[in-house]
Design goal:
By secondary structure, the chain is an alpha+beta fold. The chain has three domains: about 190 residues, Serine Threonine Protein Phosphatase 5, Tetratricopeptide repeat (Alpha Horseshoe); about 110 residues, Arc Repressor Mutant, subunit A (Orthogonal Bundle); about 50 residues, Arc Repressor Mutant, subunit A (Orthogonal Bundle), CATH 1.10.10. It is built from 18 helices and twelve strands. The strands form four sheets. A four-stranded mixed sheet has the order 5-4-3-9, with helices on both faces. A three-stranded antiparallel sheet has the order 6-8-7. A hairpin with a 2-residue loop joins strand 1 and strand 2. It is elongated, with a radius of gyration of 25 Å. The protein starts with a helix and ends in a 5-residue tail after the last strand. The C terminus is likely disordered.
Length: about 375
């Protein structure tokens, strides 16, 4: 490795992207292209960074498989920053195995961290927990240790384990201090701020994550409109993929301990303004399905005018709503990090069709809550929940 390449690599490790570019900006050999691509990624110029990293990977010979693997890892990190989930995770796994075989433990772990962060972004928490359990960050550079602890903190936050989240953030802060990388310190500060921001609403009261966790552990029957499901104690019934059933459950919970008339339930679940016998028959079918799914948590009893929710063993029924109003709350929450998301990436993260996401974005753009930045991407405008 020549002196300019070594100096540029040291600058990048310290977070000095401009310093790295000054040393290799005019060079087109594969090592310089790789460093230029990494520097452009640190500056947020992701399309250019991806182009340079691909050129570098093509330029390395067949005997330089470790260098090519490092380019694959760097490009995967760029794709993550661009919220591009189209690529196959297999290439990243293969690069990690190659780096491990050559003794490059730090970059192999970086590849695994990228895969873990991707799982977190698209909401696959169980897979992310499994991936985190296999990581061994002992003895690694502070910057990688900080990234690993930030991932652990995010997983804990999204699982509503507040104490482990605080502990992971404290370790991340210590590692980021030692790494002296401003971007990592900013991520730690954002993680701490997330603990204090409104995470949900109960009636007119806003709740922080710690208060949400306490409510879920209180023994109440919680109809969670943030994650779209029902919970009582350790029992969770997801209804995210059953929107009609969730609409019925929420309507019954909002009226508890009173019942809800059939016409109101039909309007809420099916959007029918003038119910007919077909709607009433469909309501009976859907209520039957909901009864079967939540039988362990509650009973849904018929009344002369409609239906009533009767929790089993719970002291009360609580509706937990998103901290911001509207059907697109989850979409706005994803966009609030300021990163540009394509509609395809949003559909993966939300588990919805791309067409559904596009319709929601059109509505949000009309309200000036998001803005289009071209090439199919959307990012948050002035709105921040």
């Amino acid at each position: 490795m020549d002196s300019l390449i070594a100096a540029a690599a040291r600058a990048l490790a310290a977070g000095d992207a401009l310093g790295a570019l000054k040393r290799v900006a005019l060079r087109d050999d594969p090592p310089a292209l790789a460093l230029r691509g990494t520097a452009m990624a640190q500056l947020g110029e992701y399309p250019r960074a991806r182009e340079l990293l691909r050129r570098a990977a093509r330029g390395f010979g067949t005997h330089e498989e470790m260098a090519r693997a490092r380019c694959v890892v760097a490009e995967a990190e760029v794709a993550l920053a661009m919220r591009d989930f189209a690529g196959s995770p297999r290439a990243l796994v293969s690069a990690s195995e190659t780096l491990d075989a050559h003794g490059d433990r730090a970059n192999a772990l970086q590849a695994r961290l990228i895969a873990l962060r991707r799982l977190l972004l698209i909401g696959r928490l169980e897979e992310a927990a499994d991936a985190l359990a296999t990581l061994d960050a002992h003895g690694l550079p502070p910057s990688l240790a900080a990234v690993a602890e930030l991932a652990a903190a995010e997983l804990a936050l999204r699982s509503l384990r507040i104490v482990p989240a605080r502990e992971a953030l404290a370790r991340a802060n210590d590692a980021a201090d030692r790494a002296r990388v401003p971007a990592l310190l900013a991520e730690v500060a954002e993680g701490k701020a997330a603990l204090e921001r409104p995470a949900a609403r109960r009636g007119g009261q806003t709740l922080r994550l710690e208060e949400v966790a306490a409510l879920l552990d209180s023994g109440a029957l919680v109809v969670d409109a943030c994650r779209r499901g029902l919970r009582a104690g350790a029992t969770w019934r997801p209804l995210a993929r059953r929107p009609v059933l969730f609409s019925l459950a929420r309507a019954l919970a909002e009226a508890w301990p009173n019942d809800v008339d059939r016409e109101s339930l039909i309007a809420r679940a099916f959007g029918a303004r003038r119910p007919n016998e077909s709607h009433r028959a469909r309501l009976r079918v859907e209520i039957g399905r909901l009864r079967a799914l939540v039988a362990e948590l509650a009973r849904i009893a018929a009344t002369p005018r409609g239906f009533v929710l009767e929790p089993r063993g719970a002291k009360e029924v609580v509706v937990l709503a998103p901290p911001i109003d509207g059907d697109q709350a989850s979409l706005v929450a994803l966009l609030s990090d300021g990163a540009a998301w394509s509609t395809s990436a949003l559909s993966v993260a939300l588990g919805a069709s791309q067409r559904t996401v596009q319709r929601a974005l059109v509505e949000l753009e009309a309200e000036r809550r998001v803005r289009s930045i071209g090439r199919g991407g959307r990012s948050a405008g002035c709105h921040r929940p």
